Amino acid sequence: MKIRRILATAVAAAVTTPVVFLSAAPAFADTKPTPASTQKTTPGDEDPDFDEYEKLVAAVAKAEAKVEGLEKQREAVEKKIDAEDVGEAVKTELAEAKKALEAAKAAKTAADETLAKAEEALKKLLETPAEGQEPPTEQQKADAEKAVADAKKAVEAAEAAKTAAQLRFDAADEAYDDAEVELFRQLGRIDKELKTAKEELAAAEKALEEFEDGGFGDCKEDDAVKVALSGPKTVTVGTSAVFSLRITNNADRVLDQVGAYAAAAALPDGEAPIDDDGFFERYIDVEWTGAGNPHWTPINEEFDTIEVGTIAKGGHADVKLRLTLDAKTPVGPGVAFAVGAYENNDKTCGIGEEYASADFDILAAKTDKPKPEPKPTPSETTATPTPAPTSGGNGNTAQQGGSSNTPVKGNLAATGANENLTQLGLAAAATVALGAGALVIARRRKAGASA
Question: Is the pLDDT of residue 449 over 80?
Answer without folding.
Answer: no
